Amino acid sequence: MAKILAFTNQKGGVAKTTTTLNLGVAFQELGHSVLAADLDPQGNLTMSLGLNPDTVRPSMYDVLTGGVGIERVIHQRELDVAVASIDLAAVEIALSSLIGRERALSKALMQVADRYDYILIDTPPSLGLLTVNALTAADAVIVPVQCEYLSLRGLAQLERTLELVRENLNPRVHIAGIVPTMYDPRTLHGREAVEVLRSSFGDLVFQTTINKTIRFAEAPVRGESVLKYAPDSQAAKAYRQLAREVLNGKKI
User: I want to staple 176 with a disulfide (CB 3.0 to 4.6 A). Which of 92, 140, 154, 201 is the partner?
Assistant: First the structure.
């Protein structure tokens, strides 16, 4: 059965989608089969793989609310992706009256969990019902954190949400690691933010840092991961290094 990893941070713009996509492709390069599930109504993961979230149907909205099998929303691209559409923005209303609404994603993923080694879930920048669904389905959570002071403050809220999910829905879910992203080693603020992160969370913080680069903005325009778009770049090398660290760390 697949190991399920949720990529979560209630703050937006922290490279959650970038990390989900590129880590998934790096896992594939190491010989693993991977499904990426887009649970963000913005559909950035879907779009980053060359699909249009405004027109793609059916999508994860139909899986979560309409009983559509998840196989019908999986598209084969650079890696398999269960696509999102703008309809996901209304999923909380659609699920609000359903019993077991927090387990809708978990039940859907069970249909394909034996086909993959890893399922990676890209979540929206909130701790609402979609993210709770991801945490309920996941074995572990990877938290991308932008290397700025204000980005560090939301981690306490995420930990409280995880504690509630463990108590009520999924006792096994835990933080596998924190990924410092958008790091600029030339700035004092960036270096200090990483120091604060490591002093506060210790071994939970991965040694690999993901540096700022224009490559991460360019690759989605081509509908590609940075590993395909610029395979020899420092950005691609960083995600390959992170993949090895995640897989060898035994925290998932």
Answer: 140
